[in-house]
Inverse folding.
């Protein structure tokens, strides 16, 4: 039997880590495919909430500023 060099051991460890990472990514993609409709709905709800909050912030802070102060820096 030949001795494995430390580079071979490191390469084997990194390949094993890569395989585990790819397997985890595949599992995540499978889950996302199974629940694609639910994820799309949740994403839409979050975006709408962000738009509403942004609109409320701008209305409350920018529209109430006197015109002479709006463009002053």
């Amino acid at each position: 039997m030949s001795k494995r060099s430390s580079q071979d051991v490191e390469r084997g460890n990194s390949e094993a880590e890569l395989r585990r990472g790819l397997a985890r990514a595949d599992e995540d993609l499978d889950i996302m495919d199974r629940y694609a409709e639910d994820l799309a709905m949740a994403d839409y709800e979050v975006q709408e909430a962000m738009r509403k909050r942004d609109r409320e912030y701008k209305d409350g802070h920018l529209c109430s500023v006197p015109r002479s102060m709006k463009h002053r820096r």
Notes: Residues 1-34 form one domain. The chain has three helices and no strands. The chain has two domains: 1-34, 36-73. The mean pLDDT is 83.
